[in-house]
Design brief:
This protein has helices at 12-45, 47-83, 87-114, 116-122, 127-140, 144-159, 163-187, 191-217, 230-310, 314-350, 356-368, 372-387, 391-417, 419-445. The chain is an all-alpha fold. Helix 3 packs antiparallel against helix 6 (144-159) and helix 10 (314-350) runs antiparallel to helix 12 (372-387).
Length: 446
């Protein structure tokens, strides 16, 4: 499952293709992981259960964001150390990231489970949706550490020149989740908690594959012993802090999707009630899937960018950036056309025709899809800034895109355009972010 990859000398287009295909297939498998949950819950348990799962979904995104933060941060640092001929230092950094990630996510999960009803209400749950939302939290959140480990582990395995094994770490959990969703919902009739447990078992399988690789199969990037005396602990704290700073924009990106769900749930329930939330939940299933594809493109470029940035090979850095950007733009146009022509079919996968939520979603999804193209540019730009240690720029773009502009648009667009404005809030925020990135590019070029 290992490839012969030299990030410093192999032709950039060949490197990108070699990394992109397995990464993309792995991300598509992750997308299936997400979308099958929505289809099985919507078809098997109804629109209220789908809305309840959507209420809880921001917690999953924040948890994934924590995993990506440690994955990106440690991968960038390790890539640069490898370009300087320091494989032992790279291994130590990755091990420190794995330990810190596990401790942080365990504490995060315990806090949520302890206050589950209050957390569900805080996320926007109505009385009608509270019971299934809390049930889903109890079935899924205790296993968050496995989900975060899977998200981070993909970066380390790809950096170790094993993109196909990284792909399998996503494919196996996705297939397992499909089988278990069917069994737990349609055969055993376990309801919402059955969907949660099916998801959790999939993540456990994927995290197990990651740990097995890093303990038994790793070639350069693998887990190692770390020293525990006071000086080493101080170095660990410093290293982990720097990795978190580099990877923090990835957490912000995931949390931004959580903010989009959170704000949208509040606005839709105010304008259209529970049916509006159920309709919006379909957009919230689709948007992370689009993000996974763009993220696969950015992640495929990341080790090429970081390694050649560390080696001061600027032409190769520019070539990798252009390749990632054009690939993402092409994907964005394709997704926009698919949603424009096939919105009724996509919506009917989740909620059958004839339900009020189906009608709302069919009218709104083509509007929502207008943001897919600028979203592509934004994700690649953020990934580039992270890869070349421009963490301040990455954090600024992410904060503007996912928080300032997003919340402003959710507040302003419904006032200007009514219900259509709610669907247009995210596309307008993405477009404004794209304009901001272009302005920053022109200033830097001067």
């Amino acid at each position: 499952m290992k490839d012969s990859i030299d990030f410093g000398t192999t032709k950039v287009s060949s490197l990108f293709s070699k990394l992109l295909m397995p990464t993309l297939l792995g991300m598509v498998s992750s997308a299936l992981f997400v979308i099958t949950d929505g289809i099985f819950v919507g078809r098997g348990l109804g629109s209220d259960a789908l809305a309840a799962v959507n209420i809880v979904a921001p917690l999953f995104l924040i948890n994934t964001g924590i995993g990506l933060m440690f994955g990106v941060g440690a991968s960038v640092v390790a890539s640069i150390h490898l370009s300087h001929g320091k494989p032992k230092t790279a291994r130590i950094n990755v091990t420190q990231a794995v330990i810190a990630l596990s401790m942080l996510v365990a504490a995060f999960s315990a806090l949520i489970v302890w206050r589950a009803p209050g957390v569900a209400c805080l996320l926007g749950s109505s009385e009608r949706l509270l019971a299934p939302a809390v049930e889903y939290i109890y079935g899924a959140v205790p296993f968050f550490v496995f989900s975060a480990m899977l998200s981070a582990g993909m970066f380390y395995i790809r950096l170790d020149a094993s993109p196909r094994y990284a792909m399998m770490c996503n494919v196996v959990p996705a297939l397992l989740n499909i089988v278990l969703d069917y069994l737990f919902i349609f055969v055993f009739h376990w309801g919402v908690i059955g969907a949660a447990v099916a998801t959790s078992l999939g993540y456990i399988a994927g995290a197990g594959m990651v740990l097995w690789y890093m303990l038994m199969m790793g070639r350069t990037i693998k887990l190692c012993r770390v020293k525990t005396h006071l000086r080493s602990l101080r170095m660990t704290r410093r290293n982990v802090g720097y990795m978190c700073r580099l990877g923090f924009p990835s957490l912000l990106c995931e949390a931004a999707i959580a903010t989009m769900m959170f704000a949208g749930n509040y606005v839709f329930i105010a304008y259209l009630g529970e049916d509006g939330v159920a309709a919006y939940s379909i957009a919230c299933y689709v948007f992370p899937i689009i993000f996974m594809v763009y993220n696969a493109i950015a992640q495929s470029a990341q080790p090429i960018l970081s390694y050649n940035y560390g080696a001061r090979l600027t032409r190769r850095v520019s070539s990798a950036l252009r390749m990632a950007l054009f690939t993402a733009l092409g994907s964005g146009v394709m997704f926009l056309l698919i949603m424009y022509f096939f919105a009724p079919d996509i919506v009917s996968l989740f909620i059958p025709a004839g339900f009020p939520a189906n009608t709302i979603a069919v009218g709104g999804m083509p509007l929502f899809a207008l943001g897919f193209v600028p979203f592509a540019v934004n994700i690649v730009a953020i990934g580039y800034c992270q890869s070349v240690e421009r963490d301040a720029a990455a954090m600024f773009i992410t904060a503007m895109r996912g928080y300032v502009l997003m919340l402003l648009c959710f507040w302003l667009m419904p006032k200007l355009c009514g219900v259509s404005g709610i669907w247009l809030a995210v596309p307008v925020a993405e477009l404004l972010t794209c304009v901001l990135i272009f302005v920053m590019y022109l200033r830097n070029r001067k």
